[in-house]
Structure formats: structure tokens, C-alpha cells
Amino acid sequence: MKTTDPYLYPDRDVLINKRNIKDANQLDALESDIIPLRIIALRKESIEINSVFDIQKIHKYLFDPIFDWAGEFRTITMYKREPILDGYSVDYTPHDYIKKEMTDLDKRFHSLKWDNMSLEDKVSNASSIIQALWQIHCFREGNTRTVALFLYFLLKKIGLHINSEFLGKNAKYFRNSLVLASLYSASKPEFLKGIIGDAVTYKNVQTNKYEMLNGYKVEKYSYSNHTVDKVKTIKNIMKE
């Protein structure tokens, strides 16, 4: 069956890419080789976060060697089954509302007076901005990695340092905490705030603290592709 996703090759579930790789495992391997090096290089080069739209610069830098659309907002609405939600999807922003929601978030971003905040308030507000950016899900691929790097530069801007090695070690917990923080009135932002706070202070971090998340064993999580095929979302859960 011909795909309805313009980002994929017509005959397979593989993103169209500059290397014309049509094998999913080979494309994953290419990303695994390139993206970590691009992350390290961008941290050394550094950028200043002046707007939430700066996330486009980050995505462009990371993914430009692989995709023609790096840094560009997606043009389709996506879903993704989440194991921590029993197969339901987070409600990502519909593609035709991305710019509006980004503009609204940018106004909120510019209203924050970081210099007047306590450490706890800085972590809380940074977590909230990051959660909103992640739920908007600007790009067809690479959102979590790009959001994590945006967080790194945002915290640097407001005078905080994040332990990236610690956050990377607990990447599955971090990603699933973003999921749980993106559930509207059922959201649980405390997990996201907790791991970001620990990554900033790096105090009282237990070795087994990030093995379980709201009763879910995070090691069970494995990456799966986004799809344009509609699945039940968190809104459906809340209606049931």
C-alpha cells in the first residue's frame, strides 16, 4: 500500500534522506554515528537561546547532514503509541497549528523574569517550557534529542549547568517523563521537574531512582516510529 506520509519512501517505513538509505536499520545506524558528534560540536560552538523558535536552529544543525527538511516544522499531524500509556498517543499539536502554538509559547517565554527566580522556580519554569515544546513536536523526527539540547542551552542562559552525562544515562526516563507531563489535566509534571532538578544539582541521586516511572519500568521502552495513522490519544482516555 502506498504511504500517505510524504516524509517516507513510498514503498517502506523509512524516512527519505540525503544518503538515499532505504533500510531502517542502516538509517538508524547513520543517525547514531552522526547526531552524537553534532551534539558535542554544537555544545562547543554554543548558541544563545533568545526565543523558543531557536529550537529550529538546533534541529537544523543536528539533522541537516541527513534530512532536507532539517529545521523546518512538520507538515503532517502525527501519532505515536506510548507503552507507558498502554499504547495511546500523546496529543501532539496538529501541524497547521504549530506556528501559532510556538508564537504563544514564545510570548510566555519572554514574560519570564529569570533573574528574580529561585533555583526551584528556574527548574520548574524551564521544565514547563520544555514540556510545551516537546508536546508541540515541531519536527517529523528528532524532537526529543532537539528538546534536550534546547534545555541544555536554556539552562546555560539562566545561569545553570545541567549534567548531560547523567541525563543521557537516564534518557528513557527523561523521555517518558515528558510523556507523563503532556496529558492535560491528567499530567504528572513532577517526574520531569524531578529529573531536571537532579541533573542540575546532582545531589541525592540514587542509582535505582530512575528505573521505575509511575509504576512503569523504563528499560522496557524501545523506540518506535511516529505514524500518520490515527490512534487513540490521551483525550480518548480522559473521555472513557
Report, as a whole number of angstroms, the end-to-end distance.
Answer: 33 Å
Q: Give the helices and strands as they follow along the chain.
A: HHHHHHHHEEH
Number of helices: 9
CATH topology: Fic-like fold
Structural class: mainly alpha
**Mean pLDDT across all residues, rounded?**
94
CATH superfamily: Fido-like domain
TL;DR?
The chain is mainly α and 240 residues long. 47% of the residues lie in helices and 2% in strands. The two termini are 33 Å apart.
Characterize the structure shown:
It is a single chain. The protein has a two-stranded antiparallel sheet. 47% of the residues lie in helices and 2% in strands. It has a single domain, classed as Fido-like domain (Fic-like fold, Orthogonal Bundle), CATH 1.10.3290. The protein starts with 23 loop residues before the first helix and ends with a helix. The chain has helices at 24-45, 55-63, 98-111, 119-136, 143-157, 164-169, 171-180, 190-201, 234-239; strands spanning 212-213, 216-217. With 240 residues, it is mainly α. The chain is globular, with a radius of gyration of 18 Å. The longest helix is centred in the first third of the chain and has 22 residues, at 24-45. It contains 9 helices and 2 strands; from the N terminus they run ααααααααββα.
Task: Summarize this structure as a short list of keywords or feature phrases.
240 residues; mainly alpha; Fic-like fold; two-stranded antiparallel sheet; 2 strands; 47% helix; globular
Topology:
Elements: H1 24-45, H2 55-63, H3 98-111, H4 119-136, H5 143-157, H6 164-169, H7 171-180, H8 190-201, E1 212-213, E2 216-217, H9 234-239
